Each structure stands twice: as structure tokens, then as C-alpha cells.
């Protein structure tokens, strides 16, 4: 039996030396030291020995068991630390490598110009309101003194969604909503998208942007209109920019004007940007028509006001010398990255 023991010891230790995985160790442990393991079987087999040999033999077997347990533990430690080392090596990070810069987002040129514009008007005491893009004929036309048979309401200009429901063709609809909700003094701007059934080309898009403005108070005159809009144009284009007011017509203002600024690209000499005439039209404006005020419950005998509608796309293309309005809507990253 002693020989059997020694043979088992030798075989087991040799086998153990070759093991590499924790799983193999566990299997080894079960096979030798487990309940049905070989060493346990030896202990059980002691019953067949003469009684006087049993204590010595038992001691030897227990010694073997301890020996194997210790060897197993040592091996286990060796394997664990080797695996850990391998893992650390595999996960090794070189913190001195240069980082990969994240792609930075940026503001759309329309939003850059709009932010400037909001700054300018807020500093003059205007607040910013919002209005719906889907409007009724009342807010987009009727209340603005645009009669039923006016050509602007033609299906060719206006996107109708249903009878009496349309995509607003002008932010002026927000004037009416504001005057219905507030009492004078009113000083607001309303930026937003507007929609017209235009063919797409370098200067036209079925979606574009306006910034509406409205001032209503006692004693507001054309002088206020001129002062505010001149100030605005100088802040956007620079103080040596010339500003020109041309008589015009809008159904909801009387008198009405269109405002041009001297071309920022050529200084007024005439170039491609201004189509050769030295001026760029940037907005329409006028004194709010008394009928519009009265329709909103504001007494035109007591109050007066002015309104304006700025073409934000035009402001943006002229500021950045963008030759085609379509670039503002295509969202080509190579274009947007330039701002
Ligand atoms: N709504 C007009 C347009 O779209 C512009 C405008 C606004 C004119 C306010 C006068 C007053 O052309």
C-alpha cells in the first residue's frame, strides 16, 4: 500500500505541474481529494488492513492529502497571478498617446445671425415671442387686412393644409396673436420659418425665415420706426453702412416702406451680391394700419405702432457672402464647418 501511495504522489504531482487553467485545477482537486476521489478511496480501503497497521497508514494518507492540498494551493496562486499579469498586459493603456479630438458641433449660420439680431433688439427693450407655423386664414391674412381676393392668398403662393388651415406665409401672423393677448406698450420680435409655394433657385426657397417686429404704444411715429431700424442696420452691417427707406405697400401697414442697406460686399459701387445696383433690400416695414389695431381691440385713436419683417436668409447670405440660399438648407457639413 505504501508503494501505491508513493506512485500516486508522483503521478499526481507530475500531473499538477502541467496544469494551466483554473478549471483543470478544480477537476484535479475533485478527482483526487473529492468525496469520490482517489485519496479518499485509499482512506476507505484501509478497512481491509490489519488493525495495527491502520494508524500508521492513516497518517501517511493524511500526509499525502496535505501535501497535495498545499501543492494545489501553490499552483492555484501561480495560475491566478499569471492570468492577472496576462490580463494587465492585454489591457495596457499608453496614456502618453495623443487623444482623438471629438468632432465639434457649431451653430448654423442662420442661428448665428439670429442670435446677434435677438441681442440687438433685446438691448432696445424688445422681447422674443413664438408663433405657430400652421396658421388660420384669420391670423395670416384677414386680421392683417389682406382681403379674401388678394393674390397673396392664391393657392400658388400659399400651402393650404385644409380649408382655412395653412402654413404661414409671413411671421406677421404673430403681430395679431400678440396684440390679442397683450395690452400696449408692446415691443416684441418673433423669429420663425415661413412657407411659400416658390420654385427653388439660388435666391428662392419654399421655406425661409423672417423676424417679425412690433411696437405699439402711445405716440409712436415714423421717426421711431426709422430710428430703430437704422440702429439695427448699423449694428448688423457696421456704422458706415447707408440705410435707405423706399415707399412700398403692405395691406397691414400705412404708410409702408422697404429698407435697403448699401451693399456690404462692394460698399455701394455695384457687384454680384447686390446685382449691380449697390443696395440690398433687408426688410419691409410700416406704421400698423389703424384697422389692424382696431381689429385686435386696440384703439387707434389712442395708440399707434410700427411693424417690420426682416428677411433672415438675406441677412445671412449677405453677411457671409453666400451665393446660393440652398446652401442654408442642405446641411452639407463641409459648408457648415466654415462658420
Ligand atoms: N410680412 C411682410 C412680408 O412678408 C413684411 C412686413 C412685415 C411688412 C411687417 C410690414 C410690416 O413681406
Gyration radius from CA atoms, angstroms = 43 Å
Question: What percent strand?
Answer: 15-25%
Structural class: alpha+beta
* Mean residue pLDDT: 92
Largest sheet: 7 strands, mixed
Q: What is the total tally of β strands? A: 10
User: Uncertain segments of ≥5 residues (pLDDT<50)?
Assistant: none
Number of helices: 12
Termini gap? 90 Å
- General shape: rod-shaped
Percent range of helical residues: 40-55%
The topology string of helices and strands comes to: HHHHHEEHEEHEEHEEEHEHHH
Explain what this protein looks like in three dimensions.
This protein is an alpha+beta fold and 339 residues long. Helices cover 41% and strands 20% of the residues. The protein contains twelve helices and ten strands. The chain has helices spanning 2-18, 22-33, 38-45, 54-90, 109-123, 137-140, 173-181, 222-237, 290-295, 312-319, 327-330, 333-336; strands spanning 127-128, 134-136, 160-162, 165-167, 186-195, 207-217, 243-250, 253-262, 279-288, 304-311. The protein has a seven-stranded mixed sheet, sandwiched between helices. Strands 2-4-3 form a three-stranded antiparallel sheet. Helix 1 (2-18) packs parallel to helix 4 (54-90), helix 2 (22-33) packs antiparallel against helix 4 and helix 5 (109-123) crosses helix 10 (312-319). The protein starts with a helix and ends with a helix. The mean pLDDT is 92. The structure holds phenylalanine. Residues 170, 172, 250, 253, 284-286, 307-309 line the site of phenylalanine.
Amino acid at each position: 500500500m505504501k508503494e501505491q501511495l508513493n506512485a500516486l504522489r508522483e503521478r499526481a504531482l507530475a500531473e499538477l505541474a502541467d496544469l494551466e487553467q483554473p478549471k483543470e485545477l478544480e477537476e484535479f482537486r475533485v478527482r483526487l481529494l473529492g468525496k469520490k476521489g482517489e485519496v479518499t478511496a485509499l482512506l476507505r480501503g484501509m478497512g481491509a488492513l490489519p488493525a495495527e497497521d491502520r494508524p500508521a497508514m492513516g497518517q501517511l494518507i493524511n500526509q499525502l492529502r496535505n501535501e497535495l492540498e498545499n501543492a494545489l494551493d501553490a499552483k492555484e496562486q501561480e495560475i491566478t497571478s499569471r492570468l492577472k499579469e496576462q490580463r494587465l498586459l492585454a489591457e495596457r493603456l499608453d496614456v502618453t498617446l495623443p487623444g482623438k479630438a471629438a468632432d465639434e458641433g457649431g451653430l448654423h449660420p442662420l442661428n448665428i445671425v439670429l442670435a446677434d439680431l435677438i441681442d440687438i433688439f433685446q438691448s432696445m427693450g424688445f422681447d422674443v415671442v413664438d408663433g405657430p407655423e400652421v396658421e388660420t386664414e384669420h391670423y395670416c391674412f384677414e386680421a392683417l387686412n389682406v382681403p379674401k381676393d388678394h393674390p397673396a392668398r392664391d393657392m400658388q403662393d400659399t400651402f393650404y393644409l385644409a380649408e382655412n388651415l395653412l402654413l404661414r406665409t409671413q411671421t406677421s401672423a404673430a403681430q395679431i396673436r400678440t396684440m390679442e393677448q397683450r395690452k400696449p406698450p408692446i415691443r416684441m420680435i418673433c423669429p420663425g420659418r415661413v412657407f411659400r409655394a416658390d420654385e427653388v433657385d439660388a435666391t428662392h426657397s419654399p421655406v425661409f425665415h423672417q423676424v417679425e417686429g412690433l411696437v405699439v404704444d402711445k405716440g409712436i411715429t415714423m421717426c421711431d420706426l426709422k430710428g430703430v431700424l437704422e440702429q439695427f442696420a448699423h449694428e448688423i452691417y457696421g456704422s458706415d453702412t447707408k440705410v435707405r427707406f423706399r415707399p412700398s405697400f403692405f395691406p397691414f401697414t400705412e404708410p409702408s416702406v422697404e429698407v435697403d442697406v448699401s451693399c456690404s460686399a462692394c460698399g455701394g459701387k455695384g457687384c454680384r451680391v447686390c446685382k449691380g445696383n449697390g443696395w440690398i433690400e433687408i426688410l419691409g416695414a410700416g406704421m400698423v394700419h389703424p384697422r389692424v389695431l382696431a381689429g385686435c381691440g386696440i384703439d387707434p385713436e389712442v395708440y399707434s405702432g410700427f411693424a417690420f419683417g426682416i428677411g433672415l436668409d438675406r441677412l445671412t447670405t449677405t453677411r457671409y457672402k453666400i451665393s446660393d440660399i440652398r446652401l442654408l438648407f442642405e446641411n452639407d457639413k463641409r459648408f457648415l464647418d466654415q462658420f
